[in-house]
Design goal:
Tyrosyl-Transfer RNA Synthetase; seven-stranded mixed sheet; 18 helices; binds tryptophanyl-5'AMP
């Protein structure tokens, strides 16, 4: 969805204030209804706060994934990362959610590192070497999430391409230029690598002959729309997807965090002082003075600290309710709310950095030596 004075949401750009219900209509996805959530929780044997709060708010064919689970056919998970720089907190959220799904359903997880895509995106100005360095750094961040080493395969496109190229070509032959131009907004100036690239992001949905479920923010959905139009004709399943909203940037409720705007985000290696400084400067829903705040209360709907706690950092619903009531009534001040978030984010980042060190030896397991990795390197996808 692009332009018309309204918000822009494409895989490369998210701008403006997003009306998620409208996005569901425009993208042609389905809302995550209460009934669906209840059924999913029963199958998972556990409730997940990001589903409960509709951080993951939309889907494609999640009902069919549940039928596959009930019919014991199972499903597999696929997600990814474009290694364009340090990962920020928004980027890692789909990975934590994917890990939860893997734990609950013992599912295989495929993680694509799209070094090709980020090199081809000229506006980023990254050299081939830059993208390789970020690939390694980002893989470490992803490994620190703690996926099952024998049920998880992480692969970098430029390395794995030899195994998948025949299947990439079969997809590419089914998708013409006017189609990708309409879906992604390509122009005559777009380089030919970018025009071909969508075939590479679609391939992992065909890694197994059963249904794929993709957890990601909704910006990645345009690829799945094309995949769903061609998959069955190629003898594969239409992919299912579960979409999240965007963690709002520190600067306020519009758009998404971006590594190219350092003040809008917190990266996974941000130091203590900088976390504190950035959160203190974050957009607040509070009143200009303490007296006014005590009188009129704050607005949690636009308050970044509140939004971040609700999105990821405070899983306990009871605590969130108390925070919301306190903030609306004015008994909880913006500064106090920010302190709560600073504490949570600092702890999260410090633990993440420590885990990154611990998993260095596991990287080869995910890339080559684990059970799923070895199986993948022994196959040719035709
Ligand atoms: P990338 O690296 O832009 O984003 C990685 C993942 O993070 C999600 N995301 C966010 N989630 C919450 N809040 C935010 N502010 C936020 N910003 C980004 C993205 O939706 C994504 O899930 N082309 C892809 C790489 C890729 C991929 C995939 C992603 C290849 N195959 C399959 C998801 C699923 C990319 O550049 O993602």
């Amino acid at each position: 969805m692009r332009g018309d004075g309204g918000p822009t949401v494409t895989p490369w750009e998210v701008e403006g204030e997003i009306d998620y219900m409208r996005l569901i209509k425009e993208f042609g996805t389905e809302p995550l209804t209460d009934d669906l959530v209840r059924r999913f929780e029963l199958l998972a044997g556990e409730s997940n706060f990001m589903i409960r709060r509709r951080v993951f708010f939309s889907h494609r064919d999640l009902d069919k994934v549940m039928e596959d689970l009930e019919g014991k056919r199972g499903f597999f998970l696929y997600t990814g990362r474009g290694p364009s720089g340090p990962m920020h907190i928004g980027h890692i959220i789909p990975f934590y959610f994917t890990r939860w799904l893997q734990d609950r359903f013992k599912a295989n997880v495929y993680i694509e590192i799209t070094d090709d895509e980020k090199f081809l995106e000229e506006s980023r100005g990254l050299s081939y070497d830059d993208v390789q360095r970020w690939s390694y750094e980002n893989i470490l961040d992803i490994a620190a999430v703690g996926f099952d080493p024998d049920r998880t395969f992480i692969f970098k496109d430029t390395e794995f391409i030899g195994q998948i190229y025949p299947l990439v070509l079969k997809i590419a032959r089914k998708v013409n230029f006017s189609w990708v131009r309409a879906v992604f907004g390509f122009t005559p100036q777009t380089n030919i690598g970018m025009i071909f690239y969508p075939a590479i992001q679609m391939v992992p949905t065909m890694f197994e002959r059963r249904r794929c479920l993709i957890p990601a923010a909704i910006d990645q959905d345009p690829y799945w729309r094309i995949q769903r139009d061609i998959a069955e004709g190629m003898g594969y399943y239409k992919t299912a997807a579960i979409h999240s909203k965007f963690l709002v940037p520190l600067s306020g409720p519009a758009g998404k965090m971006s590594s190219s705007k350092p003040e809008s985000m917190i990266s996974l290696n941000e130091d203590r002082a900088s976390i504190r400084r950035k959160i203190w400067q974050a957009y607040s829903g509070g009143q200009p003075t303490v007296e006014l705040h005590r009188m009129y209360g704050g607005d949690p709907n636009v308050d970044v600290a509140f939004q971040w706690l609700n999105f990821f950092f405070e899983p306990d619903d009871k605590v969130m309710r108390e925070i919301e009531e306190g903030y609306r009534s004015g008994s909880l001040l913006s500064g106090e709310l920010k302190e709560m978030l600073i504490e949570k984010v600092t702890k999260f980042v410090e633990e993440h950095v420590a885990r990154r060190e611990e998993v260095k030896d596991l990287i080869n397991h995910y890339l080559r030596d684990g059970e799923l990795a070895r199986l993948m390197w022994s196959k040719k996808f035709e």
